[in-house]
From TrEMBL:
<feature type="domain" description="C2H2-type">
    <location>
        <begin position="45"/>
        <end position="67"/>
    </location>
</feature>
<dbReference type="InterPro" id="IPR057766">
    <property type="entry name" value="Znf-C2H2_OTU1-like_C"/>
</dbReference>
<protein>
    <recommendedName>
        <fullName>C2H2-type domain-containing protein</fullName>
    </recommendedName>
</protein>
<dbReference type="Pfam" id="PF24560">
    <property type="entry name" value="zf-C2H2_OTU1_C"/>
</dbReference>
<dbReference type="InterPro" id="IPR013087">
    <property type="entry name" value="Znf_C2H2_type"/>
</dbReference>
<feature type="domain" description="C2H2-type">
    <location>
        <begin position="8"/>
        <end position="30"/>
    </location>
</feature>
Length: 148
């Protein structure tokens, strides 16, 4: 059977195309890729339509939004990958510059920017909780001193 995805041998990430593998390699410096018969997960949030490519991503989406229902469209979008790198046209370069990659027919457009925004939101939430933790510690110390 032809491969349905490319798997990064360094971190295990499943990628839909050679282009995604190249982008992953540029972002992470990983270079060990192999064909996989496992399809890239394609969970779609029933409430807002956000595509999630892993259980972890859908769990984070649920935590941030409260949306709990997802439709599994993995098999609908699973197509054998081509190991050929398509020639870049002027239009596709503009799409990449704009931060978008258009997928094959039936797939949902996803934005690279939204992935970075997800990381920024997670980092902001983490920093918020660290600050809140520090404030509560100061409050506790103040109450302990008053009680003496």
């Amino acid at each position: 059977m032809a491969g349905l995805s490319l798997q990064c041998g360094d971190c295990g990430t499943l990628l839909k195309s050679v282009e995604e593998a190249q982008e992953h390699a540029e972002l992470t410096s990983h270079s060990n890729f192999a064909e996989s018969t496992e399809a890239v997960l394609n969970l779609i949030c029933s409430s807002c339509g956000k595509p999630c490519r892993s259980k972890t991503e859908s769990d984070l989406h649920t935590k941030r939004t409260g949306h709990t229902e997802f439709v599994d469209r993995t098999l609908e979008a699973a197509k054998p990958i081509s190991l050929e790198v398509p020639k870049a046209s002027a239009d596709s370069e503009e799409d990449v510059v704009a931060g978008e990659i258009s997928q094959t027919e039936g797939d949902i457009f996803f934005k690279k920017k939204s992935v970075w925004l997800d990381f920024i939101v997670i980092e902001a939430e983490f920093r918020f909780f660290l600050i809140l933790h520090d404030i509560l510690n100061l409050l506790h110390l103040s109450l302990v001193r008053i009680g003496r």
